[in-house]
Amino acid sequence: MKDGHENLTNYVKSPITAAIFNLGYLPEGDHKIVTKPQTTLKSVQSMMKLLKPNGIIILVIYYGHPGGKQEKEQVLQFAKSIDQHQFNVLQYQFINQIHEPPILLALQKR
After folding, report:
1. In what helix (H) or strand (E) does residue 47 lie, and over which residues does it extend?
2. Which terminus has fewer CB within 10 Å in the chain: N or C?
C-alpha cells in the first residue's frame, strides 16, 4: 500500500507508545518523492494526540534535497513551540559533518 504520512490516522486509531518519521526521501526510492512540511507537521501532530504518557516520537530529518531546508526549519520551529509541560523535546545532531548531516528530534510525552 502506498500512502502519505499525513493519512496515518486512517490506519492508526489506538493510543501508541512510539512513532518514527524518516523525513526526506526513501533512499532506494524515487528521489523526486519527498516529504513536505505541511504533511509532516499534520502527521506529527496527529501522532502526538495518540501518544501515551512517556511515549516518544522520533523524527530523523534529512534535508539535503530540494525543499528539505524549508521542511527542516518549519519542523524545528514547530518543535521549539511545543509546551514543555506536555512534552520534552530533544535535538541531537552532528556538528562537525558536511553535506547536511541528519538531525534527530525526540518528542517525549510527559
Report:
1. helix 37-50
2. N
Residue in 101, 34, 99, 46 with CA at minimum distance from that of residue 71: 34
**pLDDT tens digits, one per residue of 33-72:** 999 999 999 999 999 999 999 999 999 999 999 999 999 9
Which residues lie closer than 8 Å to 63 by C-beta, 6 or more apart?
A: 23, 24, 69, 71, 72, 100, 102, 103
Give yes or no for a contact between 99 and 64, defined as CB atoms under 8 angstroms apart.
yes
How far apart are alpha carbons 105 and 79 in whole angstroms?
Answer: 8
Claim: this prediction has a pTM higher than 0.85: yes
**DSSP symbol at 1:** -
Cα 89 from Cα 106, distance rounded (Å)? 6
Residue 57's beta-bridge partner residues? 19, 107
* C-alpha closest to that of 58 among 5, 1, 98, 107: 107
CB 79 within 8 A of CB 61: no
